[in-house]
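Ticket #303: bound-state structure for zinc ion.
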Amino acid sequence: MCETKNENSSNLLRGISENGGILFYGIDSTAIVRRMEQLHKTSAVTTAALGRLLTGVAMMGQMLKSDSDSVTVQIKGGGPAGRILAVSNGAGDVKGYVENSIVELPPRADGHLNVGAAVGKDGTLDVIRDLGMREPYIGQVPLVSGEIAEDITNYFAISEQTPTVCALGVLVNPDLTVQCAGGFIVQLMPGATEDEITRLEKNIGAMPGVTTLLQQGKSIPDILNMALDGFNPELLDSTRIDYCCDCSLDRVERTIRSLGKKEVEKLRDEDPIAEVNCQFCGKKYKVDLNDLLKNWPDTVEKQ
Ligand code: ZN
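RESOLUTION: The complex was predicted; output attached.
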């Protein structure tokens, strides 16, 4: 599905507690967030916002049953970054997009990038799961803070009734390159006891932020062992995650056709060559609208 399997990949690990009651997903997403920053030329705070979302959605992609299933998370918070969106499939291909890639905001009082202000919290988080059925499964929750990790945690609690802890972090260098990025999601399966929940909260409450841990040289298995200390966790598997876009001329043409013949004729009259930039990878496509209209199939026409 993704042609560009290269150095821009990250490993996503899944682990489980000995009794099977707690699931752990963790990823050092530095490589994919770096790739995103190179493609989108984001400012520091938008790198952090989209980087966090990509990291979270990469893990949500590994909750899907099949490689061809996909999950899209879209956040519209009313902040200056505009809409941000990330997609992952079950095979580990992720991609993302932020409406306004350059947002400059002063840091928060604690020195962290002010992701919540860039994203805004006056809006919703939508999760769209395409499981190959006729209709996708859609869940929507109001935003809590726009800080992304809290909003994903809230989504799992409200929309899926799954107690979840989500931690996400992106550290941006002064020259705007990505120093490190990562995250983890811990989920309680039904039947977890109060004692287990208390222990887990205590473990995770005592942990520094993900990027601090990565900077200290901690690996994702180290982070798993810290979060699930006392639960005898074991690693289940590891999946390669790549930032990768599956756009194609064919797909671009299909998108243009979906506007309907009349609209395409109108566009053709303005300019016979439509230039389309892929919003996920920046690739440029040129479509000759006269050719497209000449070969217009009757079946997809929408007026
Ligand atoms: Zn693309």
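RESOLUTION NOTES: The first strand starts at residue 9 and ends at 16.
TICKET STATUS: resolved
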